[in-house]
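Cross-check.
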Amino acid sequence: MLRLGFHYHVPACLDQEGRLRTAGFQGRFIDSLAQYCQAVICFLYSPSGDEQFLMDYPIQQPNVIWVNLGPGGSVPARVLRSAQVYRRVREWLSELDAMLLRGPSTLLPVVAQASAKVPLALLLVGDNAAGLGDLKQPWWRFQLIRAWTHLNKFLQNRIAQRGLIFVNNRWLYRELLSMAPNVLETRTTSITAADFYDREDTCLMPPYRLLYAGRMDRGKGLFSMVEALAVLLDGCEDVVLDFVGWPQRRDTVVEEVLNLAITLGVKDRVRYHGYQPLGPQLFEYYRRADVYVIASRSTEGFPRTIWEAMAHSLPVVATRVGSIPDFVSDAAVLVKPKDVHSLVEGIARVLHDQTLRKRLIQRGIALAQQNTLEIRTRELVMQLEHWVKRA
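Predicted model, tokenized:
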């Protein structure tokens, strides 16, 4: 069994009882890794003040060790402390059989360099360079972010040429195949076999609840969802729109979304519920919803929230971007990105076609059952073990 190192930019901390805590999606993944490893040694930052609310998940497995990389904070702050991170990783190398780096991440190249003496694997869940167009920043700041993002991607791709690469989206998988010899496609998820909520149908009683859960990110099409809601209401549809998630740091997107709802006269039909911890609190919103909507604009790996929605028997309406068409096929209604009319049509189809809804629910549950943490993490660890033996 592997002694596996793990690094990502999402922080961790110890609570008053001495338990290691982190964000739910990361904590579930680490716990799942630990079930198949001798030890998981996590090289994670400590949270800044505005990240404390994310530390909602207590690690359950006793064989998880936290190596504190110091305060996380902004990208420049992490870069300035890169030498400290390098030294901390080097101190633990003798305890590792392999290192798994989730990316893209600011100091992925630094941690990779520090881990050069052990077999290295990357778990790539997106491409920050592809999403630059959705940033709302002053010109000078955008140019700095753009330059840094492309440099980070260049260094990441160089590392990919000598490591084992897991990729959770089809288009990035195809891109990396041309430059890296060891690329495997995987699915990243946050659901377990115990999370499923079975029901035959939704939309049984108005008002019908549309749900978006995830990061409150401009690239997710939040404004399009509000605009689509206004059109549906004008057409006498009895619908409400629930947003659940956390905003990006130093971004006013939530205020802008709520102001748009006021401008369009749908303020009372748009509800922002803030961040909800992964688990029963978040899952209750899925159980109360009738349709899950995600209107990503141009780039997307594969949102884990789609698996969460499908596991809770929700029909899904999503834009045809990234790996969404490749992974869900006919288990969701797919619409054009950046097209409010297409989004309205897709939602209306689900609201009014019971046969379609039931088919989507059945196919969605079947897909989610193939993509639980138990299945996907075991598969990933087996591939890692094979890679270590080869190395």
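The mean pLDDT is 94. The longest helix spans residues 139-160. Passed to J.P. for a second look.
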